[in-house]
Amino acid sequence: EADIYQTPRYLVIGTGKKITLECSQTMGHDKMYWYQQDPGMELHLIHYSYGVNSTEKGDLSSESTVSRIRTEHFPLTLESARPSHTSQYLCASSDDRHQETQYFGPGTRLLVL
Amino acid sequence: QQQVKQSPQSLIVQKGGISIINCAYENTAFDYFPWYQQFPGKGPALLIAIRPDVSEKKEGRFTISFNKSAKQFSLHIMDSQPGDSATYFCAASNTGGFKTIFGAGTRLFVKA
To answer: Is A39's Cβ below 8 Å from some Cβ in B?
Structure first.
């Protein structure tokens, strides 16, 4: 069982609101990732981090931003939520020795009205 | 070049039957091919993985078959059980680079 946590698990919010999705891992992994997953679709990488103070945009364009101030914490922020942001957001991490294997959190299901 | 194509999109199998899910990739730089299993309300979890130096890897009822020349790999679930009902994702990545490309997923339902 991977020690990676996401909160909230479900979020319903109105258009224009600012939201932060939390992700924490207790495994000491340097690398962390955010994926967007729509039903029946593949996971799309939207952000990743090599370590503290290192963040990069992923393959899928996203209006969200991330920060990595502590190794264990990798929050994702949407400054102004829109209905097009409705999706499931998955956080993952991997360690340096086995970086190909990713450990996923349970996800946050976001609905923007 | 970066895509991993997965089929079928959904699969219904009788209990005790064999479930087969196929994936194909383009990028020959990929050298690590994991399969992830995702239950409703949970994140994906690594099920089994293979590197291209072997053609098959077996762990319990789960087997990956790998065809390097065809750039294809598949997951076989022997003696499928209702508890195997989940979404399965194939993926590909390369050592040193840590981006993983995922297939679109296969929703498996095993009938009791």
So the answer is: no
Q: Give the span between the Cα atoms of B110 and B112, in whole angstroms.
A: 6
Rounded to the nearest angstrom, the minimum Cα separation between A15 and chain B is 25
Cα dist from B21 to B42, B78, B104, whole Å: 21, 12, 12
Q: Is A42 on the interface with B (CB under 8 A)?
A: yes
Which pLDDT tens digits describe chain A residue by residue (113 residues)? 569 999 999 999 999 999 999 999 999 999 999 999 987 778 899 999 999 999 999 878 778 999 999 999 999 999 999 999 999 999 999 987 776 789 999 999 999 99
Cβ atoms of residues A106 and A1 within 8 Å: no
Q: Which residue has the tokens 């077996």?
A: B58
